[in-house]
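RECORD CONTENTS
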Amino acid sequence: MSQQQLGRGPLRSRRPDPAPPSPDADDPHTSPPARFVGWLGGLGAAAAGYGVFQFLFSVLPDSIDGSAARYLISGVSGLGTFVAAWLAAGLLRARTAADSAPAPVVGPGAMAPGAPGPLPVVFATAYDTLVEQVTVVEDPEHGRLTGWPHSLGEDTPSRPTPVGTAYGLHIMLDLGVPEGRLSTGELVDTLWRLRLPDGGWSARSQGSEARPEVTALVLGALARAGASPERLAAEVEHCADGFTRQLDRTGRESTHVVTTVLRGLLRAAPRSEVLPLLREALADGAISDPRRDHLRCWGYRLQPPYGRPSPLHTAQAVVALDRAARVLGEDGDARAERARAAREDGIRWLLSCPDAPHDTCPDLANLHEEVRRPRTDDPARHEVLNVRHFTASWLARALLTPSALEIARAEGLEDELRVRLEGAVAAVWAGQTDGIWLWARDEATERRRPMWMTYQGLSALRAHAVWMYQPQG
């Protein structure tokens, strides 16, 4: 949704808005340029015709039989010249009036007052689709499970997974549950039932060992749904104890994993002692990009080799650090100040994208990465987690943070923020069909509908709509 669809938001363009026309102002069709052209057309055409008549009458040879013939030839030529000049003046007058006329009204001004935009329909159809495709199974080990697999419409019947159900719960909490077709309580119960015997959660491809990024995702969803803090605390401690460089070096060096854990634990355990450590590790993993004025940003790793500067991972870091700043604060702490400086540089880096148009620029390209961990039962083999990233949604969320707006206003970057945010949101909007987002497989035309992508798309559009809202009157 563009600013034209929702009205001007909290950003002010540095170009002043056009002043409304005065009631006493000249109509474009009777403006001085138009009146001058009309007067010139009438007078000039007659003068041109008379001039041609006089010229021809004086230069026609005497061999033409009689004065009547000379008058006839000169008169017809003069009349033709008059008509041609008059038509040319009329065309010029029409063009002058068109250039002076105001542009046609588009966007909300062209809609009936109070007409709704498309977003409520998208939310409603997304909710209906999720309700229709929720999976309910009686599992002999876990009992009744209500939720979703990793993607909607999977070829083989699949039971609910922790990842799919956690994102589905996030969606329901974002949209609100308008009626009783779906119970968030059943989703919460399912997530607890899917907990691994030794604690924590893992993705379907990760086997029976808990992984911090999935555990933090589930804990964040449970915390939003109002789960007991005491019950959450035990799982938070288990997650934090296993997320160390000694036990999970791969995860601690991954920008994606660290930002996911940080965001989830900020929801589930805002006073956890591990949060400042994760914030510091994330800030220290920023790198300098000489192609963008040596501004700091992030690659896919927090330790060498960092990888190339990545808009996706920079946006993920900005979102996580912004949330950490609001929960943990940043005053009076040198490490927190470093985190703030890194976050602000990351925002400037995102705003410095040199490519256009900003709804299709390379910064918005979706990415795919692998998180490869040695298996604890067989270190010679690796567990591989395939992670796909909806880049446009992350950029939109990063540019919608309070930090981004503060930087833009303080440094005169409001136009840059507006243009790049509009581009990111337009790319998010373009990826959905009836409120469900599609991910094309890399090697085929088959398309997936992952729950995480629909959550990220709906979340970005909802945040943008709230950010853009301007009360009338």
User: Anything to note?
Assistant: Residues 283 and 338 are 7 Å apart (CA to CA). Residues 28-102 form one domain. Residues 1-10, 12-31, 100-111 have pLDDT under 50 and may be disordered. Strands lie at 135-139, 143-147, 287-289, 295-297, 367-374, 382-389, 432-433, 436-437, 439-440, 447-448.
